């Protein structure tokens, strides 16, 4: 993944973390977004290849992508919402 793709993935993950009713899913997405943000500074030494991630992290990203048209951060909004 390039930097732009990672940034887009982080936004999708944050959207899920903010609005998904399932706490386990929300927490997994928040954790992955946080670790991806830290990966830029090599704090967590995370691979930029999702195939190298744990199954939980891969599932969290797939779920966030599947919800990209449902959980959105609208222009001017501070938090994501369900559309």
Structural class: mainly alpha
**Count of helix runs:** 3
Number of distinct beta strands? 2
Question: What overall geometry do the principal axes of the alpha carbons give?
Answer: globular
Arrangement of strands in the largest sheet: 1-2
Along the chain, the helix and strand elements come as HHHEE
Report the biggest beta sheet as strand number plus sense, adding barrel if it closes: 2 strands, antiparallel
Cα distance spanning the termini:
27 Å
Sequence stretches where pLDDT stays below 50 over 5 or more residues:
none
How many domains comprise the coordinates?
1
Mean pLDDT: 90
Helical fraction equals 55-70%
Beta strand % = under 5%
Cα radius of gyration in angstroms: 12 Å
Textual characterization of the structure:
The relative contact order is 0.21. The chain is globular. The chain has 3 helices and 2 strands. Helix content is 55%, strand content 5%. It is mainly alpha-helical and 83 residues long. Helix 1 (3-19) runs antiparallel to helix 2. The chain has one domain (3-82). A two-stranded antiparallel sheet has the order 1-2.
What is the fold's blueprint, element by element?
Elements lengths: L2 H17 L3 H17 L15 H12 L4 E2 L8 E2 L1
Antiparallel strand pairs: 1-2
Helix pairs in contact: 1-2, 1-3, 2-3
């Amino acid at each position: 993944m390039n930097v732009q793709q990672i940034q887009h993935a982080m936004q999708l993950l944050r959207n899920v973390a903010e609005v998904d009713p399932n706490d386990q899913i929300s927490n997994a997405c928040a954790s992955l977004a946080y670790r991806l943000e830290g990966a830029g500074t090599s704090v967590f030494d995370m691979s930029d290849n999702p195939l190298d991630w744990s199954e939980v992290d891969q599932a969290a990203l797939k779920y966030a992508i599947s919800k990209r048209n449902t959980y959105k951060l609208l222009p001017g909004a501070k938090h994501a919402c369900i559309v």
